[in-house]
Amino acid sequence: MTPMIRTIVADDEPMIRAGIRAVLATALDIDVVAEASDGHDAVELVRRHRPEVAVLDIRMPRLDGIKAAAEIRRIAPSTGVLILTTFGEDDNILQALGGGAAGFLVKSGEPEELIAGVRAVADGAAYLSPRITARVVAHLAATGAGASARRRAAARERVGALTARERDVLACLGGGLSNGQIARRLHVVEGTVKAHVSSILTRLGVDNRAAAAVVAHESGLLADQSVHP
């Protein structure tokens, strides 16, 4: 039997909480064990239930999702945090990821993304939907040139240790492409892309696609990379 992913949901709008619960109820391996209407109560529910995943709205009374994520990571490091928001500001995304969130989704995304995000975070992985990755990448593209010479040199050294095909895939990640888009771009199957992405994250020593995109931009890879046929 597949182990259940025990999950809490926190959002200050009852209708949104009901919608999240309804989506997650369609997944037989996810069990919503408790709900909260603010970040403070979400932290207390995590302390009490020790769930595998906490799904948090970024805008909540008493304690917002970003601060709640940091507190949850402090008191229950084994609980992964997935942030949901109707806002798309790049600073919010980067702040959430820097504060301990393992995933970030917009509420207007597909229901399947929510389920995939909960499963990925429960498995110890980071999860950013392609739309969120694209926003982070756009932000990085605008600011990456400001990286210090030392950071650029370090990034080039890390990227230089990758294989040619891994650099192709990393360039696509830096452009905000999803696995399916990368597969079509490079004329390979999606499973091969997933394997390359996993290897790239490990070899670069980063936790998620957005962090890999940072390295890609700081290294200058997107400026001089030509994709092999």
TrEMBL record:
Residue span, Response regulatory domain: 6-122
Q: What are the protein's UniProt keywords?
A: DNA-binding, Phosphoprotein, Transcription, Transcription regulation
InterPro entries xref list: CheY-like_superfamily, NreC/VraR/RcsB-like_REC, Sig_transdc_resp-reg_C-effctor, Sig_transdc_resp-reg_receiver, Tscrpt_reg_LuxR_C, WalR-like
Which residues in this protein are found as 4-aspartylphosphate? 57
Q: Per the record, a Pfam family?
A: Response_reg
Determine if Transcription is one of this entry's keywords: yes
Q: HTH luxR-type domain spans which residues?
A: 155-220
Query: What is the protein name given in its UniProt record?
Result: Response regulator transcription factor
